[in-house]
Design brief:
The chain is of the alpha+beta class and 254 residues long. The protein contains 8 helices and 7 strands, in the order αααααααβββββββα.
């Protein structure tokens, strides 16, 4: 077999592997269009010969395979529309009372700016009103040891106000989020069974894609721990602060 035949066989094998990779991670149609347009714009007019036909195809498959994986985990930020589409599809598989915390975490932390160098606690929490100092103390004392606060603030999402504590470890993000609950978000109303009890407090949890959510309700509020930790570790983070957070929220008045 001459060198050209050997190269052809190798290229065909590579293309077959790339096609299988793309099939294993479905590529959204709009993403395929964007990739094709970019490759078409950067590829010179083709000359005769197999060398000029397989290279653009292989390039497109490589980009699509990588982009598909990133799209599936939500790291391909894209446009605002892309982000909102990812958030909406992620929320579909969790019960209504669990959606607000997960929604705010993805929008504000996952798609937000995460500093490479963590600020000091005073700098990280300067935007947080003093009213929430007791919550900050609980989060600081009870969060998993490898996590450090890089932000604490009030944020708005979907016309609602959230108290949002943002933490990170070397590789993961974690949020502690509080929001005033709505009637339709009651765990009792949705007949949801708690995953575990913490000092008599029901803790509800669910996972969607790489995200895990654990939640409690107390008084007029709901509190969430959302992260990309394994489910058991995320629930454990909520268990560590559930009692103190519940007591703080129960004392809040309208």
């Amino acid at each position: 077999m001459n060198n050209e035949n050997m190269d052809t066989g190798m290229n065909q094998e590579m293309l077959a592997r790339l096609r299988n990779a793309v099939k294993s991670e479905p590529v959204p149609p709009e993403l395929q269009v964007k990739v094709r347009r970019r490759i078409d714009a950067r590829t010179a007019p083709p000359r005769f010969g197999w060398r000029n036909t397989w290279v653009p195809a292989a390039a497109m498959l490589v980009v699509c395979a990588g982009a598909a994986v990133l799209y599936q985990v939500g790291r391909l930020r894209g446009t605002v529309e892309d982000q909102e589409s990812f958030i909406a599809s992620t929320l579909q598989s969790v019960a209504t009372p669990l959606k607000p915390g997960l929604d705010d975490h993805i929008h504000c932390s996952h798609y937000g700016r995460v500093p490479k160098t963590l600020p000091g606690v005073e700098e990280a929490t300067k935007a947080l009103p003093p009213k929430y100092g007791s919550l900050l103390q609980v989060v600081t004392n009870r969060a998993p040891g490898e996590f450090r606060i890089y932000g604490a603030h009030l944020c708005k999402r979907g016309g609602r106000q959230f108290v949002h504590f943002q933490l990170k470890s070397s590789r993961r993000l974690l949020s502690v989020i509080v929001v005033r609950k709505e009637a339709r978000e009651s765990f009792v109303r949705h007949n949801l069974a708690p995953s575990v009890m913490a000092s008599g407090i029901p803790v509800y949890s669910a996972g969607s894609r790489q995200f895990q959510t654990a939640a409690i309700e107390s008084g007029e509020y709901m509190a969430y721990v959302v992260s990309d930790l394994p489910a058991e570790q995320n629930t454990r983070a909520m268990l560590a602060m559930a009692r103190e957070v519940s007591e703080i929220l129960a004392a809040w008045k309208s």
